[in-house]
Amino acid sequence: MPGTRPTIRRTTRHANGHPGIGPGRHGRAPKGHAPGGPAPRARVLTVVLALLTLQLASLVAPAYACGCGGMVTTGQQHVAVNRETSVVRWDGREEQIVMSLTVGGDAEQAAWIMPVPHRAEVRLGDPELFGTLSDVTAPVYRDRFHFWPDDPWPFDSGTDTAGAAPGAAAPGDVGVVDRQRLGPFDVARLTADDPDALETWLHDNGFALPARLRSALKPYVEQGWEYVAVRLAPGSGGAALSGTLDPLHLTFASGEPVYPMRLSRLAATPQSLRLYVLSAHRMRPETTIGGEPPRVAFAGNVASRSSDLGGLADGTPYLTAIDQEFPRPARISGDHTLRRAANDAPYQDVIYQDRLMKIGGLPVFLLATGAGFAVVVVGVVLGLLRWRRRRGLRRAAESR
User: Fold this and answer.
1) Which of 339, 326, 331, 338 lies closest to 67 in space, CA to CA?
2) How confident is the model at residue 145 (pLDDT cuts 50, 70, 90)?
3) Which of 75, 181, 202, 268 is the most exposed place for a label (fewest CB within 10 A)?
4) Burial readout 125-158 (b: 16 or more C-beta within 10 A, e: otherwise)
5) Which helix (H) or strand (E) holds 190?
């Protein structure tokens, strides 16, 4: 729109208030070309093949982790987590985690390992939950009017931008709490005090773990955590594990809200996390755990939307949406422990479209500038006329 400069900026809303390779010439190389030196087409082909090789290598590299646990495959198959979004609900005694994963690859038997601090009940989550949360936390759009353009030219634009529990596992053993079928998933709940024993049990039951995952599991073993192991259920049609998977809903006792992230240090590619936290108050991650500083995308009371959120906001009405990037997953140092923020001040991203103030379709600053210029011209003309008049009077007086 003429006179409009859209910009995207984030602000707080309080409750109150290098050249490219072009197509080469076709035909033979010119005579006299030095023998043994590569022709231009050959050099171009070499560069293109090298780039393609690097690109394909990055695509087939297995992703051993996602932001919520370990994602593993068998043989030469691969799987990658393209997006991960999770909800954490904590009421002071019990924690619930609902996870939605979007994956891609050719693996038919990919497995996912999720450590939990206490025995977890597992069920399928509501697939509509994340759409609702996205709507609730979406930025608001507002117009912002300016007298003077920020750009050098006023019309330039830019963007800123559950089974019975068995007895405790014997040393070196794995206790199977239960195994259940949930949609396309085969879910096993396990206890283990030895990563080697856990790996053996998973291998015997169709799961394959990379060797380096054993050491990554040791801190959880030392803390007495349990595990949820998930794979595509046999008989699911042999389809590859791809697309947005059905969300899984875990419930377990917890004296403090925690989101497992330690296994993500095994990931080969940067990781992104969007975490929705429902609690009695605004929450924040205790530390960055090796990632970039977390950014709050939304904070506010959503008690009125509890029914839309499947009752998750009952007793935990304050929603905090947190985004965090992990450009170097190997630096991830632990799990996210969530703490109460200093205050419950609401926050929401605002996307502004900056507009120039207009009158009659013309920018006010142009009208004002034109008016000011006109005043100056009139003043100069009047001054000249007055000067000429005085000069004429002076000459008339001298001629007498």
Assistant:
1) 326
2) low
3) 75
4) bbeebbebbeebbeeeeeeeeeeebeeeebeeee
5) strand 185-192
**CA–CA gap between residue 345 and residue 283 (Å, rounded):** 11
Q: Is the pLDDT of residue 320 over 90?
A: yes
Q: Mention every residue, 6+ apart, whose C-beta is less than 8 A from residue 164.
A: none
Global pTM reads 0.68
Distances from the Cα of 343 to the Cαs of 81, 89, 230, 256, 317, in angstroms? 34, 19, 38, 18, 15
Q: How far apart are CA 53 and CA 253, in angstroms?
A: 48
Amino acid at the residue 222 = E
Domain ranges of the chain: 58-354
The pLDDT tens digits of the residues spanning 350-387 come to: 888 777 667 776 666 666 676 666 777 777 888 788 87
pLDDT tens digits, one per residue of 8-40: 444 444 443 433 334 443 444 444 444 444 455
Q: Which two tokens stand for residue 283?
A: 């929450």
Mean pLDDT of 175-186: 81
Q: Which DSSP symbol is given to 294?
A: P
